[in-house]
Amino acid sequence: MRIIRDYQFVRPEDRGATAAIGNFDGVHIGHRAVIDMAREAVPDAPLGIVTFEPHPREFFAKDAPPFRLMNAEAKAHRLEKLGVERLYQLNFNTNLSSLTAEEFARDVIAKGLGLTHVVVGADFCFGKGRAGNADMLAEFGAKHGFGVTIADLVTQDTARISSTNIRTALSEGRPRDAAEMLSHWHRIEGEVIQGAQRGRELGYPTANMSIDGLHPPKFGVYAVLVDVLTGPHKGSYHGAASIGVRPMFGINTPNCESFLFDFKGDIYGETLSVALVDYLRGELKFDSVDDLVTQMDADCARARSILAAL
């Protein structure tokens, strides 16, 4: 998969794709339906995705609470697994946000990216002030030489599948419900960073990852599946993770700390993908370190049992 970040500098071989357009936060079932429609619209054309970094909501509301389900890298990895060949990850800036709806259709979709066909959801809005809608895009497509397919919203058990509903499930400690809407486990992906190494001292060395910029799942302990994506220890492991502020040790920045079962090795600086399977319990402040270790023993035993049954 090739990643193209500037619509004004697109190589000839990256033009002519059929693409789904949207933010695709989480790459959930509804997103996949739109992507599959793009795949089928022009079968001989490369399959593309047009998305935006930073997310427009981040651009316009820089002080808003974190809401993203995925960072850019995790989204790219998920889209590549779905067979996307061209990821048009456009830089969302003042210039792009100032384009009118027709300017976006003409200058970005038609002239810039050279797309032959695009697929959008029925609730798609675009252009300055979100003035454009899916029906308008179809009109502009006919005028500027690209096809448009409008995808209906996908439902499951009569509830709308959306990034908002997935965030709610995660906030309430329901990762399996989130996974049903996503059609994959919700994952936190990033680099392993240096921590306080308290886990190592307790016999539970953990891989620490920042969750900065991401919607925080319910704080607590989870049974997790961990993929080490880079380095000599690449592979898949079972584990338990704590997400939160670690109340046993004062006031801390929220992060994700994963303990990989039956693993030995140095993975500092490597990229991990941590899939949340089950919520085990909330964060607790224990009377003693011994009580904490006893609870960690129980958490890991329970996580092992859950993961063995997958």
TrEMBL record:
Its domain of life reads: Bacteria
| Gene3D superfamilies on file | HUPs, Riboflavin kinase-like
Q: Give a single Pfam family match.
A: Flavokinase
Q: Which UniProt keywords apply?
A: ATP-binding, FAD, Flavoprotein, FMN, Kinase, Multifunctional enzyme, Nucleotide-binding, Nucleotidyltransferase, Transferase
EC assignment: 2.7.1.26, 2.7.7.2
For this chain, the family text in UniProt reads:
Belongs to the ribF family.
NCBIfam families the record matches: PRK05627.1-3, ribF
What protein does this entry describe? Riboflavin biosynthesis protein
Annotated organism of origin: Litoreibacter arenae DSM 19593
